[in-house]
Amino acid sequence: MATHKRAEFTEAEQRLAAIAKALGHPARVAIVRLLAQRRACVCGELVLELPLSQSTVSQHLKELKAAGLVQGEIDGPRVCYCLDLTGWAMARRLLGDLLAAMPTPEAAAPGCC
User: Fold this and answer.
1) Which superkingdom heads the taxonomic lineage of this protein's source (predicted)?
2) Which of the 8 DSSP states describes residue 9?
3) Would 3 be classed as within a structural domain?
């Protein structure tokens, strides 16, 4: 039985990759910054702050939500979005672990790049 190559990686590696992918678009970074500043936000308000259409902002929010970085709560006809602080705590830990494993420039092997 064939297995997917993704199964060869740890859950932490897969999770960090999903977070990195979600943050891999400047519009999503801008959305995260706006949500961090406001603590909560309605999607329509985000559209007023960004040079993007409503549908594009909604798609970016969907990607951030799928990565566990944003959560949405239905409030009548609209959805109120905010940062998912549990997801961000995990992202901080996973990224911190990765960065802690990186050598400093002083510790780089001689002759490497």
Assistant:
1) Bacteria
2) S
3) no
pLDDT grade for 83, boundaries at 50, 70 and 90 = very high
pLDDT cut 70: percent of the chain above it: 88
- Measured distance CA(23)–CA(18) in Å, rounded: 9
Q: Do residues 72 and 61 touch, judged by C-beta distance below 8 A?
A: yes
Taking the C-alpha atoms of residue 90 and residue 70, their distance in angstroms, rounded to an integer, is 13
The pLDDT of residue 2: 56
How many domains does the structure of the chain reveal?
1
Give the pLDDT score at 1. 54
Which one-letter amino acid corresponds to residue 72? G
Q: Which structural domain, as residue segments, surrounds residue 89?
A: 10-100
Note whether residue 108 is domain-resident: no
Spatial separation of the C-alpha atoms in residues 23 and 111, rounded to whole Å: 33
